[in-house]
Amino acid sequence: MGMTMTQKILADHAGMDKVVAGQLIKARLDMVLGNDITTPVAVKEFRKIGAKKVFDVNKIAIVPDHFTPNKDIKSAEQVKYIREFAREMGIVNFFEVGQMGVEHALLPEKGLVVPGDVVIGADSHTCTYGALGAFSTGVGSTDMAAGMATGEAWFKVPEAIKFVLKGKKGKWVSGKDIILHIIGMIGVDGALYKSMEFSGEGLSCLSMDDRFSMANMAIEAGGKNGIFDVDEKTIEYAKEHSTKPYKIYKADDDAEYVETYEIDLGTLRPTVAFPHLPENTKTIDEVGDIKIDQVVIGSCTNGRIEDLRIAAEVLKGRKVHPDVRCIIIPATQKIWKQAMLEGLFEIFIDAGAAVSTPTCGPCLGGHMGILAKGERAVATTNRNFIGRMGHPESEVYLASPAVAAASAVMGKIASPEEVVDYGD
Amino acid sequence: MEIRGKAIKYGDNVDTDVIIPARYLNTSDPVELARHCMEDLDPDFAKKVRPGDIMVAGKNFGCGSSREHAPIAIKASGISCVIAETFARIFYRNSINIGLPILECPEAAKDISDGDEVAVDLGTGKITNLSNGRTYVSMPFPDFIKEIIESDGLIGYVKKQTAGK
Ligand code: SF4
């Protein structure tokens, strides 16, 4: 019996010819990541190990992105603590405000992850890099500490679910809609402990940005990782962003999957996840009349340049509804600059939206747009748990940038088709 | 090692945002985190929990973020052990890594009611509901995981491994 793509990467990094699902292994790490919330805990644990240095100063990335630019004194103290650690250890990839971005948009852009890598991050959305054909997964701070000291982590080799994508998606359907559709179908624990492997000819209509937002949300189905077959687009991306050597892994023809789903992209509609779980999905045609108070376009799921372009396409020449605050957060400095050069900010500002410096900010209810009791937001983020964006009695609806922008204009959850009329 | 305590029961998909809301993540102090544990789901939790109490929950407990603050807050609140139908994987890892005992046991998780007296034998994985006398057996930990637990968590384990290097 053959191995899945994930199993092959893990076997290689464990120095083994073959691994099977359920086996416990120790694998070599190509990158260890932490942010301003998880790294302070990791540093404390690292000190307890008594190690004097980290395993490789180039293979650790620390990105203060959650509560930065620091929102209060405690947050500032946390970042100061990890900044000092990064300096002491000589960690090369510490990204200060002005260079930082939302970590999972930043690492691929900086070329720190390439196809075939094994990456752990003390952040659950570390699974994002599966878009590049890497094995990447979220862990806790103690794992990060041990990883920084030893360059290794323990894993249970996962089983896999295969998603075969077919056909071509419509104009207003994005990677976000596809992954929301999948989570709605299998549930928030539908892929618990498992890999989600994406393949099929339908991949060719998905941009890298589509794939990043899909792999990003594998964890919202409980998945250990989400991973995409490597194609020309992946290789082009890797070459453009990195000088690191990459390796392409392919699942064996006789690899075993606990389940296989075929998804015809042509049949999908823009999809929205209702409070308070990402699995509570409805298509845009089923949402009904839901008035909103805020729209957030950004995050590690949908703060990339294509996301901003499509939001601009919807907002161009239109106004944000007077009852709505629309907050747009490019995920990295590079994306910010690109959006500026393309004139997207002019469109956003003229529409009456606010544009922020890169930060996680409101995505986790940190700052930059917290919801009051009873308020509703449409967000392009990835979680709509109780209290995620503010008051425990506020509500978050997850959607694509196109739907979010259309909702900002209409003051209620709306389809871009209602707003953008190609007839005129 | 035997643990005894009163069950505090919750449902499915208890996520890390309700275990410890992000607005309190500008600290990693266990005592402060414990003060806000479960606040958005059960505002009285911090007041009612007694040292040794056992948390019981449904499917996918601890889903959501990788914040180790979640098991840390539960442990610091005095909870001695968590029993659930299933755990989200990062939470599972984190609990083992920081030394919070957790047991996956669908039968026990379904059968135990809020307020029941429960005894847990961590060595054998046997769970007893003292309120109705029923017993359940949870999945035993694989040896590798036992080794981590015996080393008082991952840090102790790594320390042993790196000693003398
Ligand atoms: S943008 Fe949101 S989901 Fe992504 S890393 Fe930041 S807080 Fe987490």
Distinctive features:
heterodimer; A: 424 residues; alpha/beta; five-stranded parallel sheet; 31% helix; B: alpha/beta; seven-stranded mixed sheet; 7 strands; binds iron/sulfur cluster
**What pair of chains forms the biggest interface?**
A-B, 51 and 42 residues
Bound molecules: iron/sulfur cluster
Described by strand count, sense and barrel closure, the largest sheet of chain A is: 5 strands, parallel
For the largest beta-sheet of chain B, the strand count, sense and barrel status come to: 7 strands, mixed
Overall shape of chain A: it is globular
For the terminal residues of chain B, how far apart are their CA atoms? 33 Å
Beta-sheet strand percentage of chain A?
Answer: 15-25%
Count of discrete alpha- or pi-helical segments spanning 4 or more residues of chain B: 8
Helix content of chain A: 25-40%
Strand content of chain B: 15-25%
- Average the pLDDT over all residues of chain B and give the rounded result: 92
Number of distinct beta strands of chain B: 7
Quaternary state reads: heterodimer
Total helices of chain A: the number is 14
State the order of secondary-structure elements of chain B, H for helix, E for strand.
EHHHEHEHEHEEEHH
Terminal Cα separation of chain A, in Å? 58 Å
How many beta-strand elements of chain A?
Answer: 18
Poorly predicted segments of chain B: none
Categorize the overall geometry of chain B.
globular
| Structural Rg of chain B | 15 Å
